[in-house]
């Protein structure tokens, strides 16, 4: 019943407790203030009444005593004055007597104490007796003379005045006694008021102490428990729970804190899962792998780095959901292989980016790695069945092992990545890491770091290979080719640095330099060779640069060159990486007036549907189609088809890599428009270029 009443009144709530407690405390403080104030008001009222009555009575009694004393002196003056002066003295005596009468009447109207009234009654009798004797003395003075009156004054009047004065003194003493009693009473009341204030203050202090203790018990202590639990949560301990409290607010906060702890624990678990595990395969990711071996040096460990081949094609053809399904299936197959071999307890399989996996395991020699590789590769023999599709899967492998000298995990992974890249570069299924690969990789990195400075230091060179019109036998332009003359390494082939420059984005500065050099050369030719053109090769990276057409226009204006003299060549495969975006960029380039050419045609996988949409002017047949074309009828038919297709699309068709006269004749017979190759000339530079131009460009082309 009591519990129910407590709940109904809300005493389990801190707010209700504090409101009641502080309300009572305020009532006590108000009582502490009001009760002394009331007492002081009463004392003030009594003092005021005392001042108005008792003090007035005291003053009247004092005045009465003085009047009684002064009338005696006035009577003596009267008795010793001559008859002529008695009238004045009589008036003075009458004044004194009236004062005595008035003072007695005033006292009679003010006095309330019975003893005072009794004294006053006796005082009145003494006054009446005095007045009687005074009148007899006055009669004697007028009728019998001064001597008889003096004798009466001495024998009767003076005693009567003395009696009157004595009674007034008694009354005065009693009035003084009453004043003292009143002062003592006021002092006593003041002391009682002070004691009351002390008692109330003690009660308030005691109540405040009890309230502070109760507050500490019901608020501070539970809050301290809440604080301790919050600190445990902050330190990562989410298992401890805040116990229930008999305070409603603390219970609610504790419940909320418990819920928050559980929610944070769940979120941290989710974050950890997301941070350290792959969402598709649920395998540990690269971060987990590196963290697990962060402070360890590895010895006698091997690593197989695997990358799912053709994942990009699967995603583009069948969709990313199919690609994810294939990745998950491949992960299961690798896990099954790991669980069945010696690596069951010690091998750690992790999922890297894309379709890449890393398998770390103890290995004493390469045979262990090879045996595990063979079992994993065998597990990939069956296609992955996803919905209505059967997808053949194959992995590319990179192997690395550390046996004697200890290295870190990140170094071992780097070695495996180098081996994997080597396998991809040379289109092999697998490759082992070796020091030569590392040296090659470091060499390429060094070249890339030198490439930017090479542009500024004029280490690059633009070589030009002429193009011949097969119909009229005239030279109509050149293709520009970049060469690098390194100050320390000497001549560096484009095949050595261009692929890496394209992958890292450095190719952009090379393209910019080639455009500058080509337009500078065309500007120099304006006087003597105004109709010659120069073609510049651009990379896939350049075709993704949306600002590329604007940069070309800016350079044309800078060098004051007619746009049609500049040709832009791009590979077929580069166009097909993103045909929609590339077509939009090529349309913008065509609007500038420059010529556009598809280089190495036939080596890619371009769609004829896209080919007819490309705003190009020229088609260049790859050398692989024209080499010994005079002896290959099938190739001849294919090239004829390409030429006819190009002409059907209003394209100028050029054959590359012509090295034999018979190849030139055959292509001319097939209707090819132009050619370039070693038969005509190798790429030329500097004085060799100038000499060749003087010899081979007809004077009719000079101005």
TrEMBL record:
GO BP field: signal transduction
HAMP domain span: 217-269
Keywords assigned by UniProt, alphabetized: Membrane, Transmembrane, Transmembrane helix
The record's listing under SMART domains reads: EAL (SM00052), GGDEF (SM00267), HAMP (SM00304)
Q: Which GO terms describe its cellular component?
A: membrane
Query: Transmembrane helix among the record's keywords?
Result: yes
Pfam families per the UniProt record, alphabetical: 4HB_MCP_1, EAL, GGDEF, HAMP
Enumerate the transmembrane spans: 20-38, 194-214
GO MF terms, alphabetically ordered: cyclic-guanylate-specific phosphodiesterase activity
Q: Which residues form the GGDEF domain?
A: 299-436
The UniProt record lists the EAL domain at 444-697
Provide the protein name. EAL domain-containing protein
- The protein's organism comes out as Undibacterium rugosum
